[in-house]
Records
---
Amino acid sequence: MSTSATPEDLAAREAASELLRALASPTRIGIVLALRSGSRCVHELVGALGLSQPLVSQHLRVLKDAGVVRGRRSGREIMYELVDDHLAHIVTDALIHATEPRDPADGAAAGATGTRTAGTRAHK
């Protein structure tokens, strides 16, 4: 993996933006977390997430189009897996960050929900 991306590298920023956009859903985050331990078929993901099959399939399609997961046929099923471990690290790091306690003096009193508390101002 190349780490030579710079703030001036528009193509790298756009690619990273597309990746983060694909991950920007609680359902898709759940799918990535479920796939950390290995390949799963849609029915296994439905059971693990407690969601409908059409909804899980729709989110898998977004993740597949973004290069986050890939599918391989195994008999009558398609087994989905993460393209690489970096993707699981991105999601787990984001979860850790989102659940860390925040010091209101740091200006993070809004927390992960994006709501403002009394007396705080919105960022511009």
---
Amino acid sequence: MGSGRNSKSARNARAAVATKRSTPWAMIAAVLVVVLFAGAVFGYAFLRNKENAERAEALAPFTPTAQNRDPAAQIPGVQIVDYPGQLHVLPTQRVAYTHSPPFGGAHDGYWAACNGVVYPTPVRQENLVHSLEHGAIWIAYNPEQVTGSDLDALKAKVEGQPYTVMSPYPGLDRPISVQSWGHQLKLTDANDIRIDQFITALRRNQFAYPEVGASCQALGPGQFDQDNPPPFLPTPPVSEVNDTTIKSETEGSASVVPDGHAPGGS
């Protein structure tokens, strides 16, 4: 009888050992991975929400209001010039702008498409200045100085965004220049918060551009072809103004009807 009890005890001991050996470590590891992944996802979402909230708070003072019509005036480095609107020139004419890139003055009668368009090649500036007259923001960059992640950071501010356009600008004296009608800001860093401040303050700011409500949609071939835009040409010097092929930035062509005065003008 004693030996039977001993055998039963031995079997129970072996069963206990077997139970200990069958601990589901693989399942535990899988659960741990899921928990860690979920924690990382929630942590990332929390940080992004915090960053977005901080960004919105930082940009709030640059939202235009009836009491603060030009918030861009408080951005360090912004240049402001008062330009008259609706001075149009022919597609065969050039304008002797006094700023590079230009941000106001006489311009082509056809605007450049500017609803989130990133042009891969330099575009005729007379068309882009017309886009500014419609309330758009134009981000110009020196293609020899802005590449890689910096270029991607600028594109992210433009692609899919209404009344925003971007193009390379050969010979630009700084890596980046941001324009709206009558406003310009030159920078070296694509991640400079002042770019976002400028866009917040001036994109479609009804107090800061001449043709409120004007379109940024593409006009199409024969006017301005977004897929085949007129190429960039360097600004002619003021000394070459002749009132025929080269116009002053303060004088339009009498043969070009301003927007809003012809069917489909804006």
---
Amino acid sequence: MRVSSGRFRTQPRSPSRAPPTRGARGRRGSLLDPRSAAGQVFLVQILIVVLLVVAGMVSVMLQAAHDAVQQGRRDSLVAAQSFASSPGMVEALRSRDPTAVLQPRAEEARKKTGVDFVVVTDTRGIRLTYPYPQEIGKKFVGTIQPALEGRTVIEQAGGPPVPAGEGTAVQAVVPVTDARGTVVGLVSAGITVENVGRLWVPQLPIILGTGAAGLALAATGTTLVSRRLLRHTHGLAPQELARLYEHHDAVLHAVREGVLITAGDGRLLLANDEAKRLLGLPADAPGRPVRELALSEQMTDLLMSPEAVTDEVYLAEDRLLAVNKRPTFPGGDRGGSVVTLRDTTELAAVSGRAEVARERLTLLYEAGARMGTTLDVRRTAQELAEVAAPRFADIVTVDLLDAVLRGREPTAEGWRHLRRAAISGHPQLMPMYPLGEVITFSPDTPQMKALQQGRGLLEADLRQAHGWQEQDPDRARRALELGLHSLVTMPLRARNVPLGVANFYRSTPSPAFEPEDLSFAEELAARAAVAIDNARRFAREHAMAVTLQRSLLPRGQPQQDALEVAWRYLPAEAGVGGDWFDVIPLPGGRVALAMGDVVGHGLHAAATMGRLRTAVHNFSTLDLPVDEVLANLDDFVVRMDNEERTEDDGEGHEGEGVTGATCLYAIYDPVTGNCTMARAGHPEPVLVRPDGTVTCPHVPASAPLGLGCYPFETADLHLSEGSQLVLYTDGLVEQRARDIDVGLDRLRRTLHEAGRRTPEEACQAVIEALGPAHPVDDIALLVARTRRFPPSRVAEWTVPSDPAMVPSVRAKCRETLRTWGLEEIGFTTELILSELATNAIRYGLPPVRVRMLYGRCLICEVSDGSSTSPRLRRATTTDEGGRGLFLVAQFAQRWGTRYTARGKVIWAEQTLSDGPSAGTAHAPVDALLEQFGDPAL
């Protein structure tokens, strides 16, 4: 039966199309290609032929050389024996001058016999003849002992040169005997090896010609064989051939489609296992005619027909087979075809499962893309619920441990109390626990069992889920009445730590959950758990870093008279950074302002910021100039960087350097109105004049901290009273969607619109105008409005460099304090000033000047032209001096020394509240003054 309805036929019958040409046929290659099998066979055969020909030629040449040597041995022996047995030989040897008789005869014999030398020696081996007379009388080179015993010796030996050349020669040594058989002398004849070679060299062209001819014949035969092999292998390499046949067998026998190959004469050439199964073919079907295979008439006609077939469905017993047929050799006359069979009865079920799997994979992909993007625990839980509902479940709820929501490490003690963190679907139709409510689950509920067992649980029919119903019977009864019927509870676990549970509900008319839904829910919950745990850990680290950073930043405004200060600090959402600022009171009523930024985020940046802020405090305590503070801070950052890199390298970790930290440091003097500042890679401050003009003071930009060996330039400004100095970090003006120049322009415009607002109001206006809703970097802002010391609160005069002028200092001090209404601390202040002035006059250099400042405290300063700093020491009872600075330290709240470009200033501060200075009586002061014993006092 042939089925041709449109339901099964995917496209109409089309004329046969030639299949694409095989890649192997497209690259036939050549015989010299070593990658192809034919090329490898050709090269191996050529190599074998060459080796055989060369071996034959070498063997022939060696045989010829051997024959030549044997011929030389025979010629040498014949010549030697002939000369030794010549008439008169014995008489010549016994004559008075054997050489005179034998030399001409030996040379004549040498020339006639063709040997290279004929030598006659006595029984001692002394030459009696030789082609060169100068060699006569010398020792014969060769073996003579066997010849002296009556035997003949044939050997190869070297000797003096002969007319034919020099070198090794083949020589024969025969004895010369008298009538009684006594050896009376020796005769040696020989031929040099060079002349022996000439005996076989004429044969060399014949040998080479024969070898070349054999090589040519063998190469021709090899070429013919290899070309035929090349046509059959299509230029494929041996590995490709082996892989081709392996893939052929693997594909044919493993593919889920039947494959049949028929010949032009109607024989079945090949049938794979699937084809045999679908058509019920016997094992011996390949090789038999198609008409003998007992197939249906429709299938037999299909296999025998030369027409091409595309996606037509045929009935084979109880199977519907989708058939495709193409000719084996399109466009040729060889015939044959390839038929593929596919069982469409199983296709519908497979397609359904594939569609479900595709939807699940798509949902998992979307879940991976949507969950965990905000690093917020509640938002991540809500993203899980929104991903799963309604595509996997009708209602999804997520319940998390309270510790997880607070960023803490969860413990088993809190399992029973979970807080609802997310709901998605149609909870308005169901009696669900609301968001934020704490749920106490009983031990028999699916949620508690899932947490305890660490695996998901399926309740296919909630009417049979007694543990779920006992949790809240009224709520469960109403949910069942509204159509809730199936539940999958999956624990949320990360790093083997439970975080909570995710509940997937289905209601009418959705089908109930099946066991295979557990694996999908598990995969979904696993991805969500990792995202939730990352958010929890981030929240914990962020809270720790913010706490650390806030603890390191100023907690309140220090007491000072120079500036009215307000600030703002906003940590980044993705992790706190290293932004910091400080307001540091300095001696003389001055105030230092510091603002910095450490590269990076997290605990490391916050800790580094704390170390830098402490270092700035320490350097400020030394009352160093602005550029020296930055230089010392730069050295400190370099040392920190080197220490951290060394420690991290020792542990095998990548070092976290602090190179790139920035800082702006300024010192404001309210007496003169001067402000000295310098910046190391930090944004330039903004100055708001009292008239509302907004400018940038053009502070020179220096390299960031941590680079080392770079100078820091300073800028000196004169600030009118009421000027506002605005310091900030780059997070305020630079954002991803906004260029820094745009941010600076908005900052200046905002400050201009703020007009004469207070620093607190100016801070708030700037943050509202420039502060992002979700900052990606820390933001630090400090606004300082300048104040000036009233001239009436400043007393300053010059003291002549004479100890006798110290009483005048006390008198001037007394008069000034009376003007300010501070008579109650007059004796203490006179004591401090007189001691400081005495030290400056005695040990310093002129000019000596005294200055008194009346603000929140009383400041006494004595300056001189020396850079020598006094030091505090304790005098013994017999010392006449040395108690001055000790007394100053006892009666002053603080005291110290600072250096200037023209010398130094020794200062002392007295608090004006109730304290040691205010409560000191006259009698102790007079007693202390009497201890000095100085007439000038």
---
Amino acid sequence: MPVSQSRGLKEFVSGTSLSLGCATSALALAWAAPAAARESVTADPPDQPAASQPVAAQDTQATAGQARDAQAEEIIITGLRGSLQRNLDVKRTSSGVVDVISAEDIGKFPDSNVAASLQRLPGVSIQRSGARGEPTGITVRGFGGDFNTTLYDGRRISTATGGRQIDFSTVGVDFIGQLSVLKTPDVTLSSSSIGATVDIAFPKPFDRPGFRVAATASGSVQDRADDIVPTGGLLISNTFGDTFGVLGSVIYTRRDTDTNRVYVNGWPGGNFAPCQLQGSTAATCAPAAPAPGVTASNARTIPGWFPQQYGAEQQRVNDERIDARLALQWQPSDSVMVTLDNNFSRQEVVSENYAFGVWFNQTDLRNVQLDDNGTAINFTQAGSPTDFTSALNTEILKTNQTGLNIKVDASDSLKFEVDGAYAKSWRNPDGNIGSQNADIGYGGALGTNLQFIVGGDSSNAFPSVANFGPAGNGANWSNQALIGSHVTVNQTQRNTDELWQFRAVGTWEQDDLTVKFGGQYYQDTFDFLNQSTFTNNFWQAYAGYGAPSGRTTGIAPLPASLYQGSISLSDFIPGYDGNLPPSVFVFSPVAYQNYLTGLGNPQTQVIPGYNYGSVTGFTGTFDEAVDPGSVLNVRERTWSLFMRVNFKTEIAGMPFYFNAGIRNETTNLRSTGQGRLPTSIATSTADPTLLTVSYGATQPIVSGSDYSYFLPSVDARLELAPDFLVRVSASRTLTRPALNLLNPVLNVGSGQRVGALTANGGNPNLRPYLADNFDLAAEWYYQRNSYFSVNAFLKNVTNFIVGGVTTQQINGVVDPTTGQPAIFSVTQQVNGPDATVRGIEVAWQHVFGDSGFGFQANATFVDTNRPYDDQNISQTGFAVTGLANSANFVGFYDKNGFQIRAALNWRDEYLLQFGQNQNTGSFGAEPTFVDESFQVDLSTSYDFNKNFSVFAEALNLTNNQQSTHGRFSNQLLDVFDYGRRYTLGIRFRY
């Protein structure tokens, strides 16, 4: 986004203090009538009994029903406006801080993605997949990823992604009933999220008795992918008398996206020698660690950062998803309801990537110009090889969950609910190869004295290279006669997550007092395994680039039939400064590997170009082997007991609602890994930058731990006037460590590079993050369908997990490039610091009478006492991730069956994580920052009658690009240009 627009938006955010608030209606009411039907709501809802937070469809249905039944003055509202008003009723009567988004009707959810809808709420921001542009995760009040728990109908979801959070792009949105975001916990449901708990509620047969059908069909196109791809869904529901009901739905979703990307895969920190710097007059330059005999000009004493790997690629992504649901309900009497349901989803994301890349080693850099921060903004590297890569990546995520829920009304005052579920998720379950890679190019005798130049900030410029091409001849950049085979990497991550859960709840109600009590049990078992050609060293089988590069290994030239054209890199990222080489090749990694396999078995015949000096056991096929260091089993058992008391009274004649809860969680953890130590390291005969690692025997390592925490919460609401109330909430919540951090093994990977030796170690004794949370809110419901609110929050978080990077020797192995003991950069995790996060959410929703016009707006301002210090080059730097000011504005018109809505979403720069794709530096885990973003989306629909409607959607109208940077703003890591997307469709409801 241009600087002027960015500055103007910041002024808008700081000057207006607008906020979105809630969005649409409760599931029961949306289900209860067609979109065109006329609904009655009250302009000023009267006092309501204290309602539980809308954490499940049933609770929200009851709350919304109370608001409707108690109405004193009827105002006729339809469609979106009626939906918004009913949603305000839910928010207003909730015990704690809750926001809700609901479907306007069957199959009419406001956005095409769950996360995209959630970002309309105050305090909620999204993370996008750079390659697809799709929202895949959320951040709530600065806490993202594993800090937020997502539930299906109050149940935890299994996920094989490798973390605890779900990928929201795997959730079909068409037939979702409601999203509830609990920013303060409901102890009867969960207290295991410092950010928020998101409950996704699905419709059930008796939500709307009788025969019902909903169908949706649409086509969408991304402005670079060209092809129109379909999405369609069908829901059928029927009840048979008052006893039995069945609902089934299926959704097929497809998205095709072509994304251009320029990348630097890491900015490691380290020390330069004076002889490497621009203007040096040293006769020779041999950078080395300060030691006796090392001259001052060769001693590496000047701190700085350099790019590890640089390149550009086009990613052609095909995202296909199938969602299916079956729900059966049996009501043998008025006091018993039994629900059996099953949720299934399968997402397959196939990506074809075509790229070039160049690799840099810090000690090989010369004529280095460092800016004031120590970033290498201009340098040359002699003998730089150039690689052209192609990859076919296939990622399959499959989940199936079956649940049984029984509700019994034992008396007018006493009710019981029992809920059990089993779920399992798979990552790459069908034997597919996760990533097939082909790497070709030139180096050695054709390596060039490449120049690298940083020309600006990561938000508007990417680095440039000069003197590229074989031996510096740019005209030969893509000369196929000079290009030979190099490394061949296949790798697949295979995970499973198996989850058993059981919950029993009793509720006693009398007059203005409600007591809810019960217990909950989880058993979650995660299995991780990675297999690759790194493990057996087959990746180097035909490395070396071949004869034109002066090498005896590698096949060159490659058959012309392998090349399928090229992609121009001209104007590759519109609006960005920077120069790229002319093009990248389009070629199939499968065809390339088949060609090399067709050369035969190098163990039974001599094949010129095979890497006999570094690879053994290769018989012609690039088979993957299991990496023992990646094998991990984590079994987590958690027992919880809880009780919550709600009551209503008056203070000086003003209605007062109070909610106090306690929850105790006890967790037993067992972690099992496979350990092995390196015994030797050797250089590759095919490429001087590659290393081969040998290992000792593999041994199982088992570790376990236990912990227990008491988690209280208090919510209070005082209605100072019929249209004005204040809330106060206090609670303690926790977030458990990421699963991959619990590995008891120190792992030295097999795919090592010269000057970039790495290892990582887990810690199964990590304790959860703990947060003491405080909220103070004021809400003014000043007219029908309109409100204004301010909510201040404070979170004191302890047990933060930090990943320090230390340099150390492992098992005494020798680095063959130095003749000295090998020094590894080892990343390990420990509990340590604490931090305070504070912020204000401001929300405003307003409808202009019966004109049909209205808006929703929000702004969130956050801060912390532990910001990132970019001058700290110690090994244990720490800061709170995810914090960023944000703002959203939605303007809409909704009348006479016609609806149009424009949504503007802004988020300031924020620290995403510690760690980069290549994280081999000496100054700890280098950070990844996400640059400021601003996106505009437009949607519209028209109801021909109560059964048929058409809709259209245009996403990313401003062509927002996603970019990230390292420690300093000119250290670009990624810039993705994923373009705009347009959708046109039709809905049917009966």
